[in-house]
Specification:
The chain contains 7 helices and no strands. With about 150 residues, it is an all-alpha fold. It has 3 domains: about 35 residues; about 50 residues, no CATH class; about 70 residues, no CATH class. Helix 2 packs across helix 4. The relative contact order is 0.09. The model has no long low-confidence stretch (mean pLDDT about 95).
Length: about 150
């Protein structure tokens, strides 16, 4: 092995280790987010309010007028929830623009799970609805759709 090849291999190994270290930062945070996801729903005021309206929330179609009216009834719980959970665009004063990539990953996982408990839930319709609601760019919508198609 020549000195050039050896030096290149050493630099390449260092580069690979740097990429791994960066990915481990994300992995560690994602694992913690998975453990902590929506823990505020088990605390006051969310616990009491959501418990009272839980059955109704699952029976209405996401984004419908009935859904919006029901959200008004649970507004104190939702406001608390958004303030405690950064995977919601509402957590940030500038909406989705305030989020980082891991917030978006958790948000998409949340949206996907939520569609499974709502009447006529559909993650693709949810993305389309939220595209307008949160002013999501076409590029990010494509990334969300690609991710859903691959993982969910």
């Amino acid at each position: 092995m020549t000195e050039k090849i050896l030096n290149n291999n050493l630099e390449t190994i260092k580069y690979i280790d740097d990429v791994r270290a960066n990915l481990y930062i994300f992995i560690t945070d994602l694992i913690q987010r998975a453990k902590d996801h929506d823990a505020s729903k088990l605390q006051s005021p969310e616990q009491e309010i959501f418990s009272e309206y839980w059955g109704e929330l699952g029976k209405v179609e996401y984004g419908s007028e009935k859904y919006k009216k029901l959200l008004e009834k649970v507004k104190p719980a939702i406001d608390h929830h958004y303030s405690k959970n950064r995977h919601h665009p509402e957590h940030f004063s500038d909406g989705i623009r305030g989020m980082d990539i891991l917030d978006v990953v958790e948000m998409l996982a949340d949206w996907s799970a939520a569609t499974k408990r709502n009447k006529n839930g559909n993650i693709h319709k949810s993305i389309e609805h939220n595209k307008t609601r949160f002013n999501i760019s076409e590029d990010l919508v494509a990334i969300l759709e690609n991710t859903v198609n691959r993982y969910f």
